Amino acid sequence: MKTKCLMFIISGLVLLSGCGDESSGHASIPDSHAKKSVTVSPQFNDAALLACINQKLGLEGTLIPSEAQLLSIDSLSCFNKGITDISALSGLSYLQKLNLSNNQISDISALSGLSHLQTLDLSSNKQITDISALSSLSSLQVLDLAFNQISNISGLSNLSSLQKLNVSFNQIGDINALSGFSHLQKLDLSNNQINDISALSDFSHLQKLNLSTNQISDIRVLSRLVGLQQLNVSSNKISDIHALADLSSLQGLYLADNQIRDVSVLSSLNNLNSLYLEKNCISDFSAVSHVKHIGGTDTVEQQQCLKN
């Protein structure tokens, strides 16, 4: 009699699998069988995030994924979905690539346990200020935090595996936390409040560096970055560019909108094919006549400066 009753209950579960609470998408299951039949999923507080995850899994928009389904996701792109709450992402433990750019996220604490993350894009959320949750993500190789409200980047100091980092368009003044990032190949620090770049002295693998639109006047440390191929220091307060004389790998150099008068030190940069010098005060361009593409040799700003 007990066996028949049990079989009836199990059969009942199958028959009722399409019934139950419509908000969760699961059948109502007796408490005595809950632990055996269902794994617990993270709490989804954001419908837009749930819809994005379900699209990845091929599920209906309001169905709550199981823990096993969440663990099966290794890459997720939720670009421009109107997401505000990402707390449910704590259950995606095996994520390697995550794109949350152009949303309305401010709290990223849920990401702290995603130790397998290699690529993370949080750009253009415009509300992120605290990035301390990223300090444990030691597998990160690519990180984009552009267009937010970040002023303190000390939370990045342990991410020594980073190869590409973009923190442009923030409120950063101190970059000392980056001093150990010897594996970086591409770094964008543009549009911040930086005046001291001495922390970059050991970036021997760096190939592309953007420091434009800051408050930099001393670039002597750049003389050590012999692997640089692209350098942008436009819109700063630079007058002396002697540090660039031995950067023989440079192919593109952006020096516009500074206080430069002499470019003779660039004569030895034989690989240089693009040079931008707008909004400076230069009278002699003969030293860079070998450069194929030069901008700013005959602008109104240059002529006005020379008159003064």
Write up this protein.
This protein is low in regular secondary structure. The chain folds into 3 domains: 1-38, no CATH class; 42-171, Leucine-rich repeat, LRR (right-handed beta-alpha superhelix) (Alpha-Beta Horseshoe); 196-308, Ribonuclease Inhibitor (Leucine-rich repeat, LRR (right-handed beta-alpha superhelix)). The protein contains 5 helices and 11 strands. The chain has helices at residues 2-15, 31-37, 47-57, 67-71, 300-307; strands spanning 75-77, 97-99, 119-121, 142-144, 164-166, 186-188, 208-210, 230-232, 252-254, 274-276, 293-295. An 11-stranded parallel beta sheet has the order 1-2-3-4-5-6-7-8-9-10-11. Residues 1-40 have low confidence and may be disordered.
How would you describe this structure in keywords?
308 residues, little secondary structure, Leucine-rich repeat, LRR (right-handed beta-alpha superhelix), eleven-stranded parallel beta sheet, 5 helices, disordered N terminus
